[in-house]
Specification:
globular; 4-stranded mixed sheet; 9 helices; alpha/beta; 7 strands
Length: 232
């Protein structure tokens, strides 16, 4: 998994990671920054050090097999050469013998340039290695509600662009999110997003795993994500 900041693994991808781990996958997390430029600091801690600890603790809660935390400047990933960022993703994938990469959707979900740069790095590395890339996305309706309620530039996908809609259990995601003590509060937008999403997550292939994804009768793809989990 390739992400930009500590808490991306829990706030964004937590339920998907939990589903993959439950399916037998070894999920390895590559995070490019310590998140020291965050404008949120609920505890008044030294963010760079505190968020590194939070990433390790939350990743352990989610059952991740390993965490690699780099020290690129938070908020400035888009200014780093794309091939340099991709090289880190490629080395991590090779070291972990990855069968695929998991990223945020190319919109960055919130439009954050760091999210977009991390995703682009993952896609670039995967393309060179011949690996599939699965991206986490928001439904367009959920993104529109969040934009209206928060004024933040959430981006979503219409149903026709979603490849997998999977059932998830949010318990571990919520527990992992609470471990990001510098970043989480009772009024955090995360809780509203999880309420809107319910027990489903939308995913799409940025680089396909090969062949069409078979539709199931209820519109969900539990078997498909389980097959991916066993290969990741």
């Amino acid at each position: 998994m390739v992400i930009a900041h500590p808490d991306d693994e829990a706030f964004g991808l937590g339920a998907v990671i939990d589903r993959l781990v439950a399916g037998g996958a070894g999920v390895h997390i590559l995070c490019y920054t310590h998140g020291g430029a965050s404008t949120v600091n609920e505890t008044g801690a030294d963010l760079s050090a505190a968020r590194a600890r939070e990433l390790r603790d939350a990743s352990a809660e989610l059952g991740a097999a390993s965490v690699t935390l780099l020290d690129y400047p938070d908020g400035r990933l888009a200014g780093i050469p794309a091939e340099e960022l991709a090289a880190h993703a490629a080395r991590t994938a090779e070291h972990c013998q990855a069968a695929g990469l998991l990223v945020f959707d190319s919109s960055g979900i919130t439009g954050h340039p760091d999210h977009q740069a991390a995703t682009a790095a993952g896609v670039r590395a995967a393309a060179a290695a011949g690996l599939p890339v699965l991206a986490w996305a928001l439904p367009a309706t959920v993104a529109a509600t969040l934009r209206k309620e928060t004024g933040q530039p959430f981006a979503g996908l219409p149903a026709g662009e979603v490849d997998l809609c999977i059932r998830v259990d949010r318990d571990r995601q919520r527990a992992a999110a609470l471990l990001h003590t510098t970043q989480i509060s009772p009024t955090a937008v995360l809780w509203r997003r999880l309420q809107l999403m319910g027990d489903c997550e939308d995913l799409r292939w940025l680089l396909p795993a090969g062949g069409p994804v078979p539709a199931e009768e209820d519109g969900h793809h539990g078997d498909a994500i389980s097959r991916y989990a066993k290969r990741t």
